[in-house]
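Batch manifest, entry 17 of 40.
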Amino acid sequence: MTGRSWGHRERLLALGAFGVLLAMCGAVATATGAPSGPGLTLAGAALGCWEALGLWLYAVYGRQFRKDKA
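Output type: structure tokens
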């Protein structure tokens, strides 16, 4: 059984959720004193910012593409 494939928005939201999870794990690792903690936190924050930028671009330019196809 095939389902509807994920769109760009859903992929960006999944990427953002992974970024938040990574940032939270990095914060816990930093609090416990692990040397890789700040790097994990930074990587999670970068993924979260990338997702926010992608969602913003999709909101701005995605409407134009949907209007052209309709």
